[in-house]
Design goal:
The chain is built from nine helices and two strands, in the order ααααααββααα. The chain is an all-alpha fold. α2 crosses α6.
């Protein structure tokens, strides 16, 4: 069996990412953040989500999610839909979640947590490793710090203000996916800090060429029906 050397940068980024799930965020408590990871794992087996995934439209089916946490229903819905069927999210669905009392900032933080959990859990599965242990919630309260550097550019929510320039690799210096998480910079850094260890446009030696990296990324994105 071939052994794969894991870069230390991956181990460090994962250790930090796991630890952050147990700490209070900008808008969510540590207990909620840890529960979101547990709910994201549980969402894979949700029968309602499975039926919706097979339906022509997920909005044609009503019901209750199979949940393993005490998270409120609106958070459970957001976690499950982002985890299982993100390619068919709509502005109407997003507005309905906000109308339930979920703030836009809370939505972005949930999004960052679910996306980060997918990186961690997918990596463990692919490498044949045990699941990472979800950390116990630590003391502390959310900072609830607003980000003044956001603007309305017609997206579902305000995004980071940034002067866009094209880098040598041909992409904007500030990726749109990062701008989209601008309401909660800590959430953006949590996700990108984990993701960069696996996929970065510069600075790391992955053992394969940039064109090979992009081919793999594009194929996996297509397989996962990535909306972006």
């Amino acid at each position: 069996m071939m052994k794969i050397a894991v870069p230390e940068s991956v181990n460090r980024s994962h250790e930090l990412a796991v630890d952050l799930f147990g700490q209070a965020g900008t808008w969510l408590t540590s207990s909620v953040r840890a529960a979101i990871w547990a709910e994201a794992r549980n969402a894979t087996a949700c029968k309602l989500c499975q039926r919706r995934k097979q339906a022509l439209s997920p909005y044609a089916l009503q019901g209750e999610h199979d949940t393993c946490t005490q998270l409120p229903g609106n958070m459970v819905e957001v976690v499950h839909r982002i985890k299982n069927d993100s390619g068919r999210l709509t502005k109407r669905w997003f507005d309905e979640q906000i109308d339930t009392g979920l703030s836009r900032e809370e939505y972005v933080e949930i999004l960052s947590l679910v996306a980060t959990s997918i990186i961690l859990d997918s990596y463990a599965t692919a490498m044949g490793l045990p699941d990472y242990s979800i950390p116990s919630p630590q003391p502390g309260e959310p900072t609830k710090v607003l980000n003044p550097e956001v603007i309305d550019e017609g997206a579902w929510l305000p995004i980071t203000k940034a002067e866009q320039t094209v880098e040598d690799h041909g992409l904007p210096n500030v990726p749109n996916i990062a701008r989209a998480m601008g309401l909660v910079p800590s959430g953006m850094m949590h996700f990108f800090g984990t993701m960069r260890a696996h996929y970065s446009l510069s600075g790391d030696d992955f053992g394969i060429s940039r064109s090979q990296i992009e081919l793999i990324a594009a194929r996996v994105s297509s397989h996962n029906e990535c909306f972006y």
